[in-house]
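W.,

You were right to be curious about this one. When I first looked at the sequence I had no strong expectations either way, so I just let the prediction run and decided to look at it fresh. Below is the sequence, 80 residues in total, followed by the output.
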Amino acid sequence: MTLEMLVLDTDHLVELDRGSDSGAVLQRKLEEANDEIATTIISAEEQFRGWLNQSTRHWDTDISTEARITAFSRSASVRI
């Protein structure tokens, strides 16, 4: 049996994070696969930049501390 490596790009990671229908299908396929799963440093950078943009946007606006914590917690929980 030959193992393969599945490389996920940023779009895959976003769909998984959002829990979309496409993400759910991908999640099932990944769980059924007996392959290694990886992503690229480019996807990691794009995720990190998105997290920074989101946290900065929430920090610069006049929103409650609770809303800031919620936005930060959601962004920080993204697994790469």
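Here's what jumped out at me. Residues 46-80 form one domain. And, maybe more interesting for your project: The chain has a mean pLDDT of 80.

Coffee later to discuss?

I.
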